Amino acid sequence: MKASTSLLLSLPCFAAAAAVQQAKVSYDGYKVFRVAVGDEVAKVNGIVEKLGLTTWKGAPRANAMADIVVPPAQLEAFNAEIGDMQSITMHEDLGASIAEESNFGVYAAAASVNSTWFSSYHAYSDHLQFLKDLAAQYSGNAEVVTSGKSLQGNSITGIHIYGSSGKGVKPAIVLHGTVHAREWIGTMVVEYFAYTLLSNYSSSTEIKGFVDKHDFYIFPVVNPDGFLYTQSNDRLWRKNRQSTSGSTCLGHDINRNWPYMWSVPGGASTDPCAQDFKGSAQGDAPETAALSSYLKSLKAAQGLKLFIDYHSYSQLFMTPYGYSCTAVASKNTELQALAKGAVAAIKAVHGVTFDYGPICSTIYQATGSSVDYVNDVVGSDYTFTSELRDTGNYGFLLPANQIVPSGEEAFAGFRYLLLNMK
Ligand SMILES: *[C@@H]1O[C@H](CO)[C@@H](O)[C@H](O)[C@H]1NC(C)=O
Ligand SMILES: *[C@@H]1O[C@H](CO)[C@@H](O)[C@H](O)[C@H]1NC(C)=O
Ligand SMILES: [Zn+2]
User: Is the pTM for the entire model greater than 0.85?
Assistant: First the structure.
């Protein structure tokens, strides 16, 4: 008995050593807790640091919820430290939640693209096929476009939707999804917008009006390298896959890298190992450079009416600025009125509450974000960013049966903007 036990124990180590290159990060047995921080910021931060834990929404903040990932080996210590602080369990077994979510639908180059797509999450290659199939099905109103290449040479692929005037004529509306690789719902939601615009163009005068009046450029995955990595190696990867000299850690946070107010202190990390590492220099992520030149060329050619960057999670609809809590966007009054209307429209669909306001005062200070850059440097008429569902039951692992409701409510917010922007 003894011999066989030790043989069993030694096997996994062997397997792990052999597979070190491709090892998929396992979250089996990990738990995710949502802790009410209250006024105990120092205590919660201290626990996170002492036990070397990761959090899902940045550093714990006063009177906010901290969503904390705890490996099995730290569970006892975590529970002892947290004591009787108020908390709920978001994931009893994070590995099991990931396995359930990764039950992708089979997508075989459908003869006819349909809403079945939105009943599950999908492999990256299927997203590319879906965009091709969608553009082919509505070829009078759509084409596949790319806005440059990622670090690893993947095309940043999107769909361009246009109306009766033909392509490239009307003011542009640009939507980005999943710049943070693990925020999968953003991809599905902006694809839902594309599908809704195209599939209703011929039957809805309202939708036809939207599409005839604008050119939509919808990019479901603006961080393809990171997204691929979430599907091959680590579901919770956030950044791109860029190296930094002097560090063994990979990844620059593309949404802390945009070359505007990048060096303002406090809104991003200078640690290459951090989730929100700003990069070694502003704009040094190839994705940032590609996306920014694409936005500038659209602005020069057609004008840029609206830009929205979709993230998850927290249920927010936000305006510039991220870099400062005192700087006020020139159109702030109008932006707040639009954001207020958008969240009311979102709530009217399924009763889900989104908060709104400038990024810095609504969520936290963030430098080098797309919103500040697009608002001030590119010069979009209207600029927003949204954090989609939820507020902390599932976090990044939003169950697939919430894709359609998320798309429906987010589209209602988008529709409100389309009807009310000047
Ligand atoms: C809908 O699309 C799926 C693929 O996503 C396909 O299997 C199915 O046959 C399609 N249904 C119809 C009615 O076209
Ligand atoms: C699009 O068409 C579908 C199917 O007819 C309908 O259920 C949906 O409400 C329409 N969406 C919009 C935004 O018009
Ligand atoms: Zn994000």
Answer: yes
